[in-house]
Write a structure and sequence with these properties.
321 residues, alpha/beta, Rossmann fold, Alpha-Beta Plaits, 2 domains, six-stranded mixed β-sheet, four-stranded antiparallel β-sheet, 11 helices, binds adenosine-5'-diphosphate
């Protein structure tokens, strides 16, 4: 449903998207991740036919986004970054305005507005001025306009930005309902959220794809087995240097709160280092409250891959100077 082949975008001298290729079939929700400035919004704008690529081709629901930009736009439901809306308009008025842009006839417009208001929980808010709505309700209006023309492809740029946890869960449930007969590509900064909803994750860095796989694939690529945690009452720097010397420990990260130092330990392999970690902190007579273990998360993989790439780049730069 979404096909991108070698798409590249230069803004003057800035290379924003660098030779990206991917394919997203119907029935899949794909999470699009990367740091600020990585090129996510640019990619999404290209796929929605709003921005021509400098090179490469993309099709959405069979429409070429460059040669048939208008029909591509008609095939896609798009919620842009920051969800721009006409704040002075009433919800219904805004949806009617959007329906005109999609050239929906009167009957279809009326039916579709009823449907999307119902699906997006806006039925009671149709007469409300958008500027007076809460952030969560404005996001619903953004989703409603994206779904208005019944598109098979949905492209959502940070749909949960600024929402509270309850609203985020609502959006997740909503996307899950839409999954079956849509292809959905969404960008987000909230890794824990994407991990729950996406069938597949694509990660970009400086315009280039650096990872593409299922959440389990990517978790599997995170180094070491389950992460081990321990909380002790000691100086974080002392805890870090002590635990880094424990056999089988690859990395230790510390944080502190309310007088307790929390150490998060990445083991070198699959072996269980809990006993050795506990032995090390008790040997120092540091008060300790429990050693725990947790599954590797998408965030672990994400942090690891960016740390490794940043370190490799710094080394290269240091060598060059
Ligand atoms: P992301 O969505 O991942 O934060 P963007 O696609 O917005 O990334 O930006 C990618 C790169 O392109 C950044 O370096 C950004 O500064 C640059 N960029 C984005 N939009 C423009 C523009 N309209 N003109 C010039 N440079 C831009």
């Amino acid at each position: 449903m979404i096909e991108a082949a070698h798409i590249t975008k230069w803004y003057g001298p800035t290379l924003a998207v660098d030779d990206l290729s991917f394919s997203i079939p119907k029935g899949k929700i794909v999470g699009f991740l990367g740091p600020n400035g990585a090129g996510k919004s640019t990619t999404l704008r290209i796929l929605t036919g709003y921005l021509p690529p400098t090179a490469g081709t993309a099709t959405v629901a069979g429409h070429n986004v460059t040669k048939a930009a208008e029909s591509a736009r008609a095939a896609v439901g798009y919620m842009p970054e920051n969800n721009p809306l006409y704040l002075e308009m009433r919800v219904e008025e805004f949806l009617q305005f959007r329906a005109k842009l999609f050239r929906l006839d009167k009957k279809t417009t009326s039916e579709r507005i009823d449907t999307v208001c119902d699906r997006c929980g806006l039925s009671q808010l149709r007469r409300r001025v958008i500027g007076h709505l809460s952030k969560g309700n404005r996001q619903r209006v953004g989703l409603a306009q994206a779904l208005l023309h019944n598109p098979k492809v949905l492209i959502l740029d940070e749909p949960t930005a600024g929402l509270d946890p309850i609203q985020i869960v609502e959006i997740r449930k909503f996307l899950e309902e839409l999954r079956n007969d849509h292809a959905i590509l969404l960008s987000s900064h909230i890794l824990a959220e994407i991990e729950k909803v996406a069938d597949r994750i694509m990660i970009i860095r400086k315009g280039k794809m650096i990872a593409d796989g299922t959440v389990d694939d990517l978790r599997g690529k995170a180094k070491g087995g389950s992460r081990v945690t321990v909380e002790t009452q000691a100086e974080p720097s002392a805890v870090k240097s002590k635990l880094e010397k424990v056999a089988g420990v690859a990395r230790v990260e510390t944080s502190s709160a309310a007088g307790w130092c929390r150490a998060e330990i990445t083991p070198k392999g699959e072996g269980d280092v809990r006993e050795k970690v506990l032995a090390a902190v008790t040997a120092e007579s540091w008060p300790t409250r429990g050693v725990g273990q947790r599954q590797v998360s998408l965030e672990d993989y994400y942090m690891q891959v960016f740390r490794e790439m940043d370190e490799a780049e710094h080394k290269k730069e240091a060598k060059a100077t």
